Amino acid sequence: MADALLTPQTSLQDSSQVAVGYFAAQADGRLLCTLCPRHCTLADGQRGLCWVRGRVGDSMVLTTWGRSSGFCVDPIEKKPLYHFLPGSPILSFGTAGCNLTCRFCQNWSISKSRHDDTLQVRATPEAIAALAVAHSCPALAMTYNDPVIYLEYADAVAQACRARGIKTVAVTAGYIGDAARDRFCRLYDAANVDLKSFRDGFYQRLCGGHVQPVLDTLVYMVHEAKVWTEVTTLIIPGENDSDGEMAELADWMVSKLGRHVPLHLSAFHPDFKMLDHCATPSALLRRLRAVAHAQGLQHVYLGNVRDPQGSITYCHHCQAVLIARDGYQITAYDLRDGHCPKCGTVCPGVWTASAGSWGAQRQPVQPRS
User: Fold this and answer.
1) What are the CA-CA distances from residue 191 to residues 153, 359, 369 (Å)?
2) Helices (H), the chain
3) Which stretches of the chain drop beneath a pLDDT of 70?
4) Ramachandran sector of residue 327 (left: φ over 0; alpha: ψ -120 to 50; beta: rest)
5) Domains of the chain by residue range
6) Using CB atoms within 10 A of its CB, is residue 83 exposed (0-12), middle (13-18) or buried (19+)?
7) Which CATH number is 67-365's, of 3.10.20.440, 3.30.1330.30, 3.20.20.70, 3.40.1790.10?
């Protein structure tokens, strides 16, 4: 509770607000939000740091129910997911707000938004599911900002999608409290979790949070909820780019998640409140990839750079090329029912008989009102 950061008292009256759970009354009359580890304590009319959950009277409300910052059909590799329905289109959408304060946020115009005009698109869960079907998307991604903070809306969207046979994907920082973790994780068929660093000091200094809840979420996703999980770490020069930290991170993944879980090492570019750091050199990403491989991780990919070699999925047993990529384009696909055709070894993931051909297209779309 000591690290809760409250916004000034504001009006929460809006047609999109919906009463939600995950709170407890305090002796001083405030309400404690238990959704995430921030544990914001709120007087009537206040919102938490995430900006989208707030107090009205004796209730907590979600102010972004049914409102989106936009919809787009993307390549699934953009999430990034490399072992889940490769080459397929995925309907992406988000809302606004975030429960972390990352100084290097590369999507800050949405995640840090405090303006209602960011949320111009209104859509019911059923309309979102119908939009995915209309554009032949086998999956929907909750992305752009973190679906943790709109958990109840995400739950309704996931249910509507599953009723239509659409799989659900979370792109998340995994910063969620114990009370809500099970419900959140079980909404999804796949997730990419942003593990920003393996150092708690990094999280405290640059993200306004702590690393342990993210590690707990990853373990729960993989072993309890059985969600297909991939991990992304944005490599920031001078901050989380040492060989030692990468070795520790990779060793933890091998021992706690499994050596088969893919790790994406993504290039940083100066943005938001971190304009004084240089962009990540490709050579640095390649060096850290070698470190992660040396610790036993089987699948380590490079992102935000054009590096076809760093995008190949190899058989971890015989090193045959199973999937080759050039950017978001699949250039070769050689899997037989999820197995290497040369040695028969299983490549963990969620596969189709052949790769999709969506490529690098990005298509903005709108739900029907």
Assistant:
1) 17, 20, 29
2) 108-111, 125-134, 151-163, 178-185, 200-202, 212-223, 243-252, 282-294
3) 1-15, 107-119, 369
4) left
5) 18-62, 67-365
6) buried
7) 3.20.20.70
**Against a cut of 0.85, is the pTM above it?**
yes
pLDDT tens for each residue of 109-141 = 565 555 455 567 889 999 999 999 999 999 999
pLDDT digits (tens, 9 = 90+) for 259-308: 999 999 999 998 877 899 999 999 999 999 999 999 999 999 999 999 99
Residue 74's alpha-carbon distances to 104, 142, 195, 331, 363, in angstroms, are 23, 12, 22, 17, 7
**What's the Cα-to-Cα distance from 84 to each of 125, 139, 183, 209, rounded to whole Å?**
23, 10, 22, 29
What are 293's two structure tokens? 């491989």
Q: Beta strand pairing status for 70-75 and 41-42?
A: unpaired
Could you give the CA distance from residue 124 to residue 126 in angstroms, rounded to a whole number?
A: 5
What is the pLDDT, as a whole number, of residue 7? 36
209-225 in b/e burial notation, b at 16+ Cβ within 10 A? bbbebbbbbbebbbeeb
The DSSP H or E segment spanning 67 is strand 67-68
Cα separation, 104 vs 100, in Å, equals: 11
Question: CB-side exposure of 319: number of CA atoms within 13 Å?
Answer: 2
Query: For the chain, how many helices (H) and strands (E)?
Result: 8, 20
What lies within 8 Å, CB to CB, of 162 at 6+ separation is: 168
CB 19 within 8 A of CB 12: no
